[in-house]
Design brief:
Distance between the termini: 33 Å
Radius of gyration: 17 Å
Shape: globular
Strand order of the largest sheet: 3-7-4-8-9
Length: 222
């Protein structure tokens, strides 16, 4: 089902109750010794999160209602990073991915993301194809309304969204976000390498991302 939000942007919503009569009331809980993480930024990309937490496994695409995706978290590199901002408006949606990981591995991601220094964590209620689900996620505490993401960070987010087949309207919103070049070209190339041949430049010079094709002869191995 799709509706239009306050800004006129088409949003993909979780199915209505009449559409989920055959779904479980609640999605299964994670196995003992594991936790669920709701990713909505660069960790959408499987290669990105596996480089940080090797035990991470995809569980489901999920929707966080009453929130809006913002790029105002001040990163340690001075650029903008993603955040989920509560709005309380029922038409605002953030689409993300739930990953399961070993509880013992969670500190690896906490250190990388800067838990306690720019991000806090919070358990959120999500809608998934398997039913309602709860997972923890990061919420920004160091916010700069003027922050702008680097092009490589934006590219990672878009590549992850395409990998998991997010709705076209949501992808269009991501592609419309302003971004700037990273002055550290080596750092930028390291991150672009995670996307590999999925990074394409359009005729207008804007960055475009296509989904990774594991069968393409030029695609790097997972």
């Amino acid at each position: 089902m799709e509706l239009t939000d306050r800004n006129g942007t088409l949003q993909s919503l979780a199915p209505l109750a009449t559409e989920t009569a055959s779904m479980p009331a609640t999605a299964p809980a994670p196995p003992e010794g594991s936790v669920l993480n709701f990713a909505y930024g660069s960790n959408l990309l499987t290669r990105r999160i596996l480089a940080r937490v090797p035990s991470a496994q995809l569980v489901s695409v999920a929707t966080l209602a009453g929130h809006r995706l913002c790029w105002h978290k001040r990163g340690r590199d001075g650029s903008g990073k993603c955040d989920v901002l509560p709005t309380g408006h029922p038409l605002d949606r953030v689409i993300g991915v739930v990953y399961r990981m070993r509880t013992a591995d969670k500190p690896l991601l906490d250190r990388t993301e800067g838990l306690g220094s720019g991000y806090d964590e919070e358990e959120v209620s999500l809608s998934t194809a398997a039913g309602p689900m709860r997972a923890w996620t990061y919420r920004a505490t160091d916010i700069d309304s003027a922050a702008v993401p680097f092009t490589w960070y934006k590219a990672l987010v878009i590549a992850g969204a395409r990998e998991h087949a997010f709705p076209a309207a949501y992808l269009s919103g991501l592609e419309g976000v302003a971004a700037r070049d990273d002055p550290d070209t080596a750092r930028a190339q390291t991150h672009f390498d995670l996307i590999g041949p999925a990074r394409l430049a359009g005729a207008d010079g804007r960055l475009k991302i296509r989904a990774l094709d594991p069968h393409h002869p030029n695609s790097p191995t997972p």
